[in-house]
Amino acid sequence: MVAGNGLFYPILGFASCVAFIYMSFGDLGLTYHQEPELAFVTRNGTQFVVDGRPFYINGWNSYWLMDHSAEEDRKPRVSAMLEAGAKMGLTVCRTWAFNDGGYNALQISPGRFDERVFKALDYVIAEARQHGIRLLFSLVNNLRAYGGKTQYVKWAWEEGIGLSSSNDSFFFDPTIKRYFKNYVKTLLTRKNTITGIEYRNDPIIFGWELMNEPRCMSDSSGDTLQDWMEEMSAFVKSIDKNHLLTVGLEGFYGPKNPKRLTVNPEDWASTFGTDFIRNSKVPDIDFASVHIYPDHWVQHQTFEEKLTFVSKWMLSHIEDGHYELNKPVFFTEYGFSNLNNDFQPSQRERFYKTVLDIIYKSAKRKRAGAGALVWQLFVEGMEEFNDDFGIVPWERPSTYKYFTKQSCSLARLQGIPLQNQIYRELCLQRQ
C-alpha cells in the first residue's frame, strides 16, 4: 500500500540511512563486540598465561588516563598514549581506577559517583581495547593524591562515625571498610556504556590492584594490613573470579623476615607494616607486585652501587616468587629520578637496561620475573603533570630503542612476531 503511494523507496532509503548511522555511531558496543574474542590473562604457577602461552610483559604507567578522559580538551592524549604504547610493542598499562573526592572525582562521596567521570573510565577501557593494551587498575591510593585512604577517613570522620582520625583507620574501621567495599562492587559490576561489557567480564582489563603502595605505620607487626588484605582480596574474588589480583606492594621485607637485613634498602623499610612474603602469600592474591626506586631508597650511594642494589633487589624477589610463593613477580613501577645532583640521561638508560635485562633473562629461563612497568610515560605537552621520573619516550631515540628492543625480545620468546602485525613491523629490523 505504501509502495502504491510512491513512498516506499524514499522511506526505505531514509530508514537504511538511519540504521547505518545508528550502527556506526549510536551503538559503539556493536563495533567492539565484532572484534575477535579476547582471552583473559591467567596464571599457571609463576607465569602469566594467555591462550595457553606464557605472557611476559613490557609496559608502563600512565596514572592520569581517567582524569584526562574526563576533559574534552585533554581527552585526545588518552588515545595518543595508548596508540604510542601499542606501536612500541608495550602490552600492559597501569593506571588509576579511582579519584575520591576533589576535582574530577569518580566517587564524590561514599556511594555517590559522577557518571561523567565513570563514562571517562569507560572510554579509557574502550580505547585500550581498540589498541590492544591491557589495563592494570589500582583501586585506591595509600597516598593523598586523588583522595586515597585519607579521603575515606575524612568522610567517616565528618559523618561522626569514624573510630579514629588516623589515616590507618582505613584498614580497620568497619564503616570505612564498608565504603571501600561498596566502591569496589560498583566498579567491578559497572557496565561499560561504550562496549556494553561489565568490567568484571572484560578481558582487556589485565587485573586489579588493591592499593597503590599500602603502608600502615601504626602497626609495624603487619597484622592490621594482613587482615585487611585477606578480607579485601576475598571480597574482590567473590565478585570477580575472571581477573588477576595483586596487593600493590613496594616489596619491602617485614621485621620478622631475615631478608630485611640483607635486601631491604635501609632499616626503615621494615617498619611500614608490610611484608613481601607474608602479604603475597594471601590465597586470593594471584601475583606479587614490587616497585624499584633506588635513588629515593638508597640516596647516599654512588650510581654504580644503586645499580648493584637494583639487581640484588630484583633477583631476590624473583627467587621468592619461584621458591616461596609459586606466583609471578611483577615489577609494577620502576623509575629513576632526574633530580639527582649528578643526573645524566645516560644513567637513567642504564637503569632501564638493568631492569629490562633481568626481566628478559628471567623470562628466558621461565622463572618468576613476569614483567615490568616503567614509571611513567607521557605524550607531549604534559609537563605540568610530570614528576621527576616521567618521560616522553620518543624524545630520546636511544631510550625509545631500549623499550622497543625489550618488546621484540619478549615477543620472540612467546612466538608473537609471526602472528602480529605490530611486532612484525617493529621487530623486522632487529632480526
UniProtKB/TrEMBL annotation:
Position of the signal peptide: none
GO terms for CC?
extracellular region
Catalytic activities: Random hydrolysis of (1->4)-beta-D-mannosidic linkages in mannans, galactomannans and glucomannans
What name appears for this protein in its UniProt entry? mannan endo-1,4-beta-mannosidase
Q: Which InterPro entries match?
A: GH (IPR017853), Glyco_hydro_5 (IPR001547), MAN-like (IPR045053)
Q: From the record, give the transmembrane residue ranges.
A: 6-25
Organism of origin: Hevea brasiliensis (Para rubber tree)
Q: Where is this gene product found?
A: Secreted
The protein's enzyme class: hydrolase
A Gene Ontology biological process noted in the UniProt record is: polysaccharide catabolic process
Tell me where in this chain the Glycoside hydrolase family domain is found: 40-376
